[in-house]
Amino acid sequence: MAPVLELRQISKDYPGHRALDAVSLEIPRGAFFTLVGPSGCGKTTTLRLIAGFEQPTSGEILLNGVPINHLRPYQRAVSTVFQNYALFPHLTVRGNVEFGLRQRRATDAAARLRRALELVQLAGKESRYPAELSGGERQRVALARSLVIEPEVLLLDEPLSALDPNLRKQMRAELKNLQRRVGITFLLVTHDREEALSLSDRIAVMHQGRIQQIGAPEELYLRPKTRFVADFLGAVNWIQGAGVRPEATRISRRPPDGGLRSLPATVLESLFLGSCVHVRARLPGGDVVTAEVSRYDGDFRPGEAVHICWLPADELRFDGA
Amino acid sequence: MNRLRLGFLAPAALIIAALILAPMALVACYSFLSRGAYGGVEWIGTLENYARLFDPLYLKILARSAVLAAAAASLCLLLGFPLAWFIARAGPRKHLCLSLVILPFWTSFLVRLYAWMFLLRDTGLINTLLLAAGWIREPLPLLYNDGAVLLGLVYGYLPFTVLPLYATLERLDPSLLEAAADLGAPPLAAFRRVVLPLAAPGMRAGALLVFIPCLGTYLTSDLLGGSKTFLAGNLIQNQFTTARDWPFGSAASLVLMGLTLLVVFVWLRRQGENLL
Fold first, then answer.
1. Residue of B175, B186, B198 with shortest CB distance to A86
2. Burial, B168: exposed, middle or buried (Cβ in 10 Å; 0-12, 13-18, 19+)?
């Protein structure tokens, strides 16, 4: 199936620096697609280019196969959920959600408004003003306001970052659920790797204005193509040029059986984290590795001589990186 | 604590009492007395001063003043809005721009009005240049008419609209405009549905800050309007100087003040604002 949104060789220059460097992307229809990367990697710029708030220096943006570079933001069939939500403070929940419908003079506005409010569980709060809502409720208004106009792609700019940590986890689940129910393509921008891994069908990892790798969450996590992707998506122990995730790193008092690679090590400390234990150990070369083990695997004390072992299949290897 | 608070309030309260309330009480008192032959008052109580105000001649003057003040306020809004918008978006230069807006206040209003007279009169700069260029045969009547007064009022009070408008527009989150565009609103619709409602408090304040002083103006109308533009302020001034009718002047100023308060009150009530 043809992608709903396509970026072809998009570059964006600002005076003195290049924010995006030949970024190409294809976003499948109905997908939950995430752009993830550290701050300044160009992910938000990408979103703003798609929304039309800024113009690319070169390259082409296609929506349903049609170039939209020349279209103004109000002519593009995409909608943005802003990081600060950008709700209209002088309008009620109803007024905010109706905003786009009234602009389009939708005939079934009342029904669509009701459906959208029910979708985000805001029915009954139509006459509240944004100032009278909690952070989570504001976010739902922002979602409903964009979803009600049925965009081809919903652009979400760090939508969870303004929420407190507990609420963030809850809204994360709701967001995924919502996307499944409405079937609209979501393009999420975030710097939070957990958010990216747990929500997305596909992820593009960005770094310094370039796309490092695109793929399904498992693929990126288990088979990263660059050191940057490996490091960004999770902790890595670098052992003799290969990367091993802490949860793939095992620890044992006896030398391991065949099939495992191993190195002798000395335990530095054990950190009890509730669901698991992080054991930090020093390798002969001086490198320190962390093994994430179950607390049923035994109690490792500082100074203890152990063996760090791992499966060759769990090694992350990069060519020349 | 309360005593301390009173201590801090006392100086301002004293100044208001001595310099505003006391003279106003005097004016109120005079308005019910009879005129003296050479100014001053005779201690004979009367309501005649108020009754005279209903003379169509005076009502007409009041109406003219109100229309001119409203026109000045509207023009100031119309001219001040784009300027305030520009300054609010001027980035690091906005403080310089704001200084330029209030720069005229460094010179006396009287001097600036005389400057306008030099520009506008028959032998003034504008007419001289136009004549010299051969575009006109005889001087244009730029001075001593309502237009000149309106020009003077707008010129003098424009900063009073720009400043409150700037304050509201500067607080307007630019992402709201992006959101409006994002939801399908072209610039004009975004302006009407987002900017105008959010700027309304500043526009109301700005209009009021121009309307009130313009309603009582006498200097601008005196210098730029000449004898043709006789406004409420000129009427009052005239009673205390040439006409030597202090009681009637007092009654007129009290009524003008009452009407102004009424306008302010109705204006703010209608808009549901609690500025007072």
1. B175
2. buried
